[in-house]
Amino acid sequence: MAELSAGPSSDWVRAGSWCVTFTRGITPDDVLARYGALPADARIMPKPEAVELGAAAYRAGTPKSVLRVGSLSDWSFCYEEWGVLGGMPGPLARLSSGTETLTVDSNGVGLDTFGHWRDGRCTEVYEPEDPGTPLSSPHPLWDAFQERRHTAEEGESALMSAVRVIGDRMGAVLDDVTLDAPLPTVLLGDDVPPRRSPPAGRGRGAPVPLADEPD
What Å distances lie between residue 82 and 24, 56, 57, 167, CA to CA? Predict the structure, then answer.
């Protein structure tokens, strides 16, 4: 089973703000459709162009999510650098319908989450910096995360551990080379950017509440 490699290939995890989902057994076009985008609207572009696409929408006063999709083994991913749709229950329920989805996101100020959805239902969700204790069993993602934290090299962040656990679960690697390469890209969203509600239950293993509505 492949493990997310250390070093430069994982620098994307250290970026300021992003969200990424991984869904088993569906195509990148399926992923876009489940986010509510039209696959036919996708344009192939490298990461710098995608970043500028989101920046231009922001400067115009109509910030939107920039969705970049691709495949990793039997999984398809969607990476957002302008938006957090992949951290909201509506898209996650649709993505995981009939399958499973892993999600991880960082807002750059320590409010990070990672979790697992299966067939439209959230099975696990935690904050890497304060995962607490699960309220019910089984909790394989939490177990794997705790094991990773005990064996991680000194200086590995909790967020990096969460990403590596997800990589181990998939048996596939999302690295900088993949994200920097040209990928199908769609600009999607309303004039008001979606934002997630603040988490609750820190340190108690309580689920992190998510909301589709903007604050």
Answer: 23, 11, 10, 22
